[in-house]
Design brief:
Elements: H1 2-20, H2 24-33, E1 36-39, H3 74-86, E2 92-97, H4 119-128, E3 131-135, H5 155-179, E4 183-187, E5 192-193, H6 201-215, E6 226-231, E7 242-243, H7 247-257, E8 260-264, H8 275-281, E9 288-292, E10 294-296, E11 299-302, H9 308-319, E12 326-330, H10 339-358, H11 362-370, H12 374-385, H13 389-399, H14 407-418
Parallel strand pairs: 1-2, 1-12, 2-3, 4-6, 6-8, 8-9, 9-12
Antiparallel strand pairs: 5-7, 10-11
Helix pairs in contact: 1-13, 2-10, 2-13, 3-4, 3-10, 5-6, 8-9, 9-10, 11-12
The chain binds L-rhamnitol and zinc ion (ZN).
Length: 424
């Protein structure tokens, strides 16, 4: 098998080099080195491990489906993520939400969380040799029930969330220190209204003020280690009409305060894609966090696949040569299929997208463009689509020592039979 892959690859390598001037070896090495952060919340449908007092409810976010085998605690989530990582080529990170704290069976309110409650994650990441990223959790909580958190009109509620975000940055800092490198911290809030608000200004003024309080807290936090991003959204369930942290609001906020901007592929109008926005934002913003997801109608969180939207995002990064200014994280949650399978499908798709972009004949395309040869430019773009990409992808998997092609499916099935099926 590896013989066949090597032979096919050698032919592909020649085709890429001779006809397109592309070095497949360099592309494979570069593609394996781009970190992709795997979100812990695919393993358990965004449930988390908080010990919840009576009456504590959900809200703000929703996974649909009830496929058996959901992870029920930290060890199971980590076990599933580690299994997925065995089947995924290239550099991984793990992205943890605050509600995935482990508090030893005791209820700990979100504004009292500390790094101690994430020691299980920190130790595990060290063992695997991967970095951790972090997120405050501003949903699935009684004080998020009416749809407002950091922009809440009641200062008691708003201050609670400010305190939560402040302690979360300290946790991110501790993660960064433990791993000897930055922890990318994403601040997403669900705030918004189902129907037409009479005041769109007030919540936005309060949100700006809350963020200012959060980001100006420098006690024990430095921006090289805890690297903050804010994530916008178009609408959510229960915030169909108005989202406080809209694209414009958060882009302006982030830029004016020197905070990173996060774009989730699923957070725009259904006919809108994000690749065209990257060059606009990066004229002004220093860096972007990209949440790789797949929007379908009202849902922004289907499993990422190797489609045009995804290819275009990475092609844009390649053509602008901004690999060092984007961070890549996954954000989808599908509870209707084998969840380890969901991780592997989505992460392999993202890695494919990265490799696909790194194999782009960018130099030639841009030269045609400079010479006004636009038929040639479009022709080469079209021809590049039918290059033997699969052969290079298979070689990447081989080099990374992960299953090639559909071989991982049977490993997923075996894991389901051995591990997942025992979970009630
Ligand atoms: C929600 C945002 C956000 C969340 C995670 C769980 O619409 O995309 O990134 O998915 O924080
Ligand atoms: Zn997201």
């Amino acid at each position: 098998m590896s013989n066949r892959i090597e032979k096919t690859y050698e032919a592909a390598k020649e085709t890429y080099a001779e006809l397109f001037g592309v070095d497949t070896e360099a592309a494979i090495t570069a593609a394996l080195g781009v970190a992709i952060s795997l979100h812990c919340w695919q393993a358990d449908d965004v449930a988390g491990f908080e010990v919840k007092p009576e009456g504590l409810s959900g809200g703000g976010i929703m996974a649909t489906g009830n496929y058996p085998g959901r992870a029920r605690n930290g060890d199971e989530v980590r076990q599933d993520m580690a299994k997925a990582m065995e089947l995924i080529p290239g550099k991984s990170r793990a992205n943890v939400h605050a509600c995935y704290c482990e508090t030893g069976g005791k209820f700990v309110e979100r504004d009292k969380l500390t790094a101690e409650h994430f020691q299980g994650w920190i130790d595990w990441a060290k063992e695997l040799g991967i970095g951790l990223d972090f997120n405050p959790t501003a949903f699935a909580h009684p004080l998020a029930e009416d749809g407002f958190t950091l922009s809440h009109a009641d200062d008691k509620v708003r201050n609670f969330w400010i305190r939560h975000f402040i302690v979360c940055r300290k946790i991110a800092q501790a993660m960064a220190e433990a791993q000897g490198g930055p922890c990318f911290m994403n601040h997403w809030i669900p705030d918004g209204a189902k129907d037409i608000p009479a005041d769109r200004f007030g919540p936005r003024a309060r949100l700006a003020d809350s963020y200012d309080q959060i980001f100006s807290d420098t006690t024990g936090v430095d921006r090289e280690k805890c690297v903050d991003f804010v994530e916008s959204k178009l609408f959510g369930i229960g915030s169909e009409e108005y989202v406080v942290g809209s694209g414009e609001f958060l882009s302006n906020y982030a830029l004016s305060r020197d905070i990173g901007l996060c774009m989730d592929m699923g957070h725009y109008h259904p006919t809108e894609t994000i690749h065209g926005k990257i060059s606009s934002h990066l004229q002004f913003h220093k860096q972007l966090l990209l949440h790789v997801s797949r929007p379908i109608r009202w849902d922004s969180d289907h499993i990422a696949i190797f489609n045009d939207d995804l290819k275009n995002v990475f092609l844009e990064v390649q053509r602008g040569n901004v690999w060092n200014r984007v961070k890549i994280a996954l954000d989808f949650f599908d509870a209707s299929v084998n969840r380890v399978g969901a991780y592997v499908i989505g992460t392999r798709a993202a890695r494919k997208g990265i490799l696909y972009a790194l194999l782009d004949p960018t130099a030639q395309l841009q030269q045609y463009e400079a010479e006004g040869k636009n038929a040639q430019r479009l022709a080469l773009m079209e021809e590049a689509k039918s290059l033997p990409f699969a052969a290079v992808w298979d070689m990447l998997c081989l080099k990374a020592d992960v299953p090639v092609g559909p071989a991982w499916i049977s490993e997923m099935e075996a894991y389901e039979a051995d591990v997942l099926s025992a979970r009630q």
